[in-house]
Write a structure and sequence with these properties.
This protein has 382 residues and is an alpha+beta fold. It has 17 helices and twelve strands. The structure holds protoporphyrin IX containing FE. Protoporphyrin IX containing FE binds next to helix 12, helix 13 and helix 17.
Length: 382
């Protein structure tokens, strides 16, 4: 199985994945990567194919770091079980549900409140994008009383445990502390469900069991804060780096929606979806064996030359249809609508508060990561 993938390292992917993924699309679109012990699937059509066949490419992988750290949840199951569980959680995140009410009534005030004390120079990621994303999800879930700092701590603890590939006991302990604290907060909100409006009360009313609620809220907190944060950082950075796009959006603010979609496509903050073959199967000529892990590379399909015209260009008038940054199949992002609003409104309020915002030239932006990619920091001056 030694081919192109033998030369690929995780360090290189985390630094700059795009040239490596472009070469794979060209030379070996379904490629075994020994360092990661999984197949990389890099073309749009092949990833759409694996996402449409959960009976062949299951999300219930064995072993699963996600299930070990969070407990079985919607992202570690396949239809029809997945559909049964997902339906109890989905309405909260639709525009007609709690998320819609939150965006209409609270999001702008939350953003403005975080911006109010900021002056002169600051890091957009830690001072604004991260607390905004944490506070927004906390409020939607009905955990707002615990504050953004606590929700962020739980997120960090859970993510540390998910990434604990070597079973380091210190990392497991951080995850356990987060799980105990979050579990106590969720149970208190559940027992008070009539009094505390929000997602958790909705999940109880929809008939979700205590375990389903706890495990899936852990999933939401581990996955629903970093991504809007990175989205806010990426869109802000693109606007600050590209005067042409900044002027276009200033002239016609309706273009902000298109810009957000193009930034999600070109930078794809969640890089991959991981599945496991249930049977021996051939994909684009490569022999995948039952039990092999298969990574659908969303970042690569969003830049696939066979699917997109001039894929690396941000074009506000694209016509090729929607991208894959929120995935393509049954596990398409539950918080997609809410996440988009957080990014759009978050960036909008930032530029409304600081119309002369500029990149801090003394601290260059460092985009990093493969599985999760975004600016590590984004220093600006007002
Ligand atoms: C705005 C940026 C976001 C991006 C780019 C993003 C991306 C994704 C992607 C690619 C998946 C598929 C993962 C897979 O199949 O392995 C996913 C699933 C998921 N996302 Fe998001 N996400 C975002 C925001 C959010 C938010 C705000 C929430 C809050 C609840 C959330 C909750 C979830 C959940 C629960 C799933 C699992 C869905 C399922 O298994 O059916 N995400 N997301």
């Amino acid at each position: 199985m030694a081919g192109f993938g033998a030369s690929v390292s995780l360090d290189d992917l985390e630094r700059d994945p795009d040239p490596i993924l472009a070469a794979m699309r060209r030379e070996e679109p379904v490629c075994w990567v020994p360092e990661l012990e999984m197949w990389f699937v890099t073309r749009w059509d092949d990833v759409a194919d694996i996402e449409s066949r959960p009976e062949v490419f299951t999300a219930a992988t064995e072993p699963s770091f996600l299930a070990r750290a969070l407990g079985p949840n919607m992202l570690t199951s396949d239809p029809p079980e997945h559909t049964r569980v997902q339906q109890k959680f989905s309405p909260t995140f639709q525009p007609g549900g709690t998320s819609g009410d939150f965006v209409a009534t609270r999001l702008v005030a939350l953003a403005d409140g975080l911006l109010e004390p900021l002056r002169d120079r600051f890091d957009v990621m830690s001072a604004y994008a991260q607390p905004l994303s944490a506070a927004a999800l906390a409020e939607v879930l009905g955990l707002g009383d615990h504050g953004a700092a606590a929700v962020w701590r739980w997120c960090e603890g859970l993510c540390t445990d998910i990434a604990n590939f070597t079973n380091d006991p210190e990392m497991t302990k951080l995850g356990e502390v987060a799980k105990v604290e979050l579990g106590t907060a969720i149970r208190a909100t559940m027992s008070n469900a009539g009094a505390v409006a929000g997602g958790i009360a909705n999940f109880v009313a929809a008939g979700a069991s205590e375990d389903e609620i706890i495990n899936n809220v852990r999933l939401m907190i581990s996955g629903g804060i970093n991504e809007p944060r990175d989205g806010i950082g990426l869109v802000t950075w693109v606007l600050l780096a590209r005067d042409d796009l900044r002027s276009a959006v200033a002239e016609d603010p309706r273009l902000m929606r298109r810009l957000v979609e193009e930034v999600f496509r070109v930078y794809t903050p969640v890089g991959t979806v991981t599945r496991q073959a249930t049977v021996d199967v051939e994909l684009a000529g490569s022999p995948i064996r039952a039990g092999d892990l298969v990574s659908g590379i969303l970042r690569s399909v969003n830049l696939d030359e066979a699917h997109w015209d001039a894929p690396y260009e941000i074009r506000l008038d694209r016509r090729e249809g929607s991208h894959a940054a929120f995935a393509l199949g049954a596990h398409r992002c539950l918080g997609e609508w809410l996440g988009r609003q957080e990014v759009r409104v978050g960036v909008d309020r930032l530029f409304a508060a600081f119309p002369d915002l500029r990149l801090d030239a003394t601290r260059p932006v460092d985009l990093h990561g493969f599985e999760f990619r975004g600016p590590r920091s984004l220093w600006v001056s007002t």
